[in-house]
Structure formats: C-alpha cells, structure tokens
Specification:
The protein has 229 residues and is mainly alpha-helical. It is built from nine helices and no strands.
C-alpha cells in the first residue's frame, strides 16, 4: 500500500508485477489449500459469494460494461453455434443431461404422465377434450385416406388382393343358408382374412411404414400454411 494511493491501485499494481511470472508448485498448493478452507467454511463461503455477486452486479450496473459484456457473449455464442465440432459437443452434452435426468426421475415422470392422462380423461380436458379428439380423428382420417390411395396407385396391392381373395374363396367356400341371409357376414369374414394374409400384409406394412409419416408431415405442413387471402 506504501507505493499506491488506494486499494484498487494497489491491486492493479500487483497485477502488473505478476504479469508474465509463474507461481511455484508450493505457492499454488498454498493458494489451493486456502481456497478449500474458505469454501469449507459456510460463513466465509457465503461472504465470498455475496462479495463476488455484489462486484459483478456493480460492474454490470455500468451501461458501457453491460453492453460490452453482451456484445462479447453474443459474438462468442455465434462463433460456437457456427462450429460443427462445438455443436457436436453441445448435442452430446445435452443428450447426457437429458438421459441422466430421465433415468433419475423416470418413475416420477411416468406416474405424473399417467395421473395427468387419467385426470384429463375424467374431466374431458387436454388431449382428451372433445376438440383435441376431433382434431386427432380428422388428422388420422386424412392421413390414412391419402396413404391408402397412394398404396393402391403405386403398388400391386389390388392384384394381390384379388389373387388372395380367389384362393380363400376356394379354401373357405360359403356354406351358410341358401337364401343368402348370412352371405354378408361371410364376405366380411373373407375380407378380414384377405387383408390379414401374409401376401397383403407384406405389401401394406412395408408401404404404410413410410407412407404414414410422409402424409403426416404433409398434414402438419398443410395445417401450418397460412390461409389464402
């Protein structure tokens, strides 16, 4: 303090003296031990944190400092987000955090979701409200209609259906009353057997696994598009 006029000037003077110098291993160990003792003492640690926060708040209270800090932070984040390697690190870190959180609170999350679903089911709100159910039904109807139309147009499903139907008619002939009173029931049973056959299922399952997500995306884009003027 004898060389300077104030504590702040003394701090700057000492910083200038130490610039470019290296601390010995013994000095680093002493400083580390001192810091650990401070952090281990609840009162000293709280006082240290309060002083640090007060200093930061005072520094940010100056508009010029706040603007400089915001500018540096924005530039740094823009550079990071433009760096593919940093994006990879960020995504991996986020995935680890989300996975750890899920594993830690899995049972609680599931229980909360189940309770919310039951509550909404009982009260007819949320995803179980008449409006939400109506929207889901409308979306499912549109998507399935488009997917089925595409399957009939782009695959040999119809030809396969006819072949399987003819074969099953021979294997499962109508044996009901001659007046045909049960013929409609027979046709429904035959139709279910045809669509459930291995030949038809192979075509429909393979095609629908791609068609449904495709038309679901189209439906979302269609709903998000602005109404024509």
């Amino acid at each position: 303090m004898g060389r300077t006029c104030s504590k702040s000037c003394s701090s700057r003077h000492m910083a200038n003296l130490r610039t470019g110098t290296k601390q010995t291993a013994e000095t680093k160990a002493k400083r580390s031990q001192s810091l650990r003792r401070t952090r281990a003492d609840p009162e000293r640690n709280a006082s240290w944190i309060a002083a640090a926060n007060a200093g930061i708040a005072k520094w940010h209270a100056d508009p010029a400092n706040a603007l400089a800090h915001a500018t540096r932070a924005s530039d740094r984040m823009r550079k990071r987000h433009a760096d593919p390697e940093w994006q990879k690190v960020r995504d991996e870190r986020s995935s680890r955090t989300m996975k750890a959180t899920w594993e830690k609170h899995r049972a609680r999350f599931i229980a909360m979701s189940a309770e919310r679903y039951v509550r909404q089911l009982e009260t007819g709100t949320g995803i179980n409200s008449p409006e939400a159910i109506g929207r889901k039904n409308a979306a499912a109807k549109w998507i399935m209609k488009k997917a089925q139309e595409a399957m009939h147009a782009e695959t040999d499903y119809d030809a396969t259906y006819a072949e399987v139907q003819a074969r099953l008619r021979r294997e499962m002939p109508y044996d009901g009353p001659q007046d045909g009173s049960e013929y409609m029931d027979y046709l429904q049973k035959l139709g279910r057997a045809v669509v459930s056959s291995a030949e038809c299922r192979e075509i429909s399952d393979t095609f629908m696994s791609k068609a449904i997500p495709h038309f679901a995306k189209q439906y979302r884009e269609r709903k998000a598009a602005p109404e024509p003027a």
